[in-house]
Amino acid sequence: MTAFATYSPIHYTPPRWACNSIPVLPRKAFFSTRTAPGVVASSRAYAKFEKFQTTQSFGDDNEEEQEKEEDDSCLPSDLEGAVRQSAQATVKFVSSGGTRAIVELLIPQLKFLDDEGAQIELWEMSRVFLDTIVSETSGQRVKAIFPDAGAAALLKHQWKDAAFAFSSLGDRKPVSIEDEIVVMVVPDYQMLEYVQKIASEVSDDPPRPLIMWNPSLVSEDVGVGINVRRLRRDFLSTFTTVYSMKPLPSGAVFRCYPGLWKVFYDDKERPNRYLLAKEFIRRPDPEGLEIIFTGQDKAENETSLLDQAASIFSSLNRFMKAISR
After folding, report:
1. Helix, strand or coil, per DSSP, at residue 78
2. Could you give the 3-state DSSP secondary structure of residue 198?
3. Dihedrals φ, ψ of 244, to 5°?
């Protein structure tokens, strides 16, 4: 496989599936009636992902505990659980007649593709997503489109038992008439022209669902003109974000179709817990998030800049550790 050592725009190393599996941890939910300062919304508390570190199993005979678990079910227990949950949300969207969907896991370790460990975990999680789509759609023909031919060839060789088809953005015919669901895996903004071409093709008769998994189609490069940015924005506006997870310094933003967008607030008095701050019909903008967290900012206005920076990195580190288990 020396011919596949390096590819543009992403550099690859062969996945080590056998020694890099991610365990699925059991779930346990908690309640609270405390409301975060400065937040006008639900007073229910949601536990952070660290709550799922326990290895204890829970039976089905405890009705009260089942109700608690159901109330907390919007939060995934780990990264693999989040990926499966995102696939299930995607299938619900497609089953309701949706045709263009975006799944975004805005987690640092899935973004830095120059790091070997990030590449391995990225492909592992994409396999989980694709396998779940296949199983949840009763075996419909799924086409996975990878960033380039090198990635597609390498992973096809690794995943000989895959129940989906492989292609790449640069293929002459990346989509065939037999494909029923098309999934683009981490499409990059440098390949936007190919992405748009495929999107147009699958919109023709017969129209087929197109899912973009963790796309990076927006570039802030100075050399990108206003018209190009506008065309990208208009193109992305035709997609529905069916799943989103984004950690924040003091909480998180979460959406799982068909649910609303949820903003979670860091419970300062109980570590590893969230408060549901507010729900939105659309993605909350930075101004809306700033309003939600104003109460915390006022309470901590005497904190030194160094302490604030330490708090931000500590919160992000706890969040990342939990969902990557």
Report:
1. coil
2. helix
3. -150, 135
- 181-207 in b/e form (b: 16+ CB < 10 A) is bbbbbbbbbebbebbeebbeebeeeee
Contact 78, 53 (CB under 8 A): no
pLDDT at 175: 96
What would the pLDDT profile of 306-323 be if each residue is shown by its tens digit? 555 555 556 556 555 555
On whether the CB atoms of residues 214 and 189 are closer than 8 A, the answer is no
pLDDT in tens, 131-181: 999 999 998 999 999 999 999 999 999 999 999 999 999 999 999 999 999
Contact in structure between 43 and 35 (CB atoms under 8 Å): yes
Please tell me the pTM assigned to this model. 0.73
Burial class (CB in 10 A: 0-12, 13-18, 19+), 215: buried
Question: Which of 58-62, 144-148, 181-185 is the least confident region?
Answer: 58-62
CA angle 67, 281, 52 (to 5 degrees): 35
In angstroms, the CA 276 to CA 293 distance is: 12
pLDDT at 110 over 70: yes
- 198 close to 204: Cβ distance less than 8 angstroms: no
- Containing 320, the helix (H) or strand (E) segment is helix 305-323
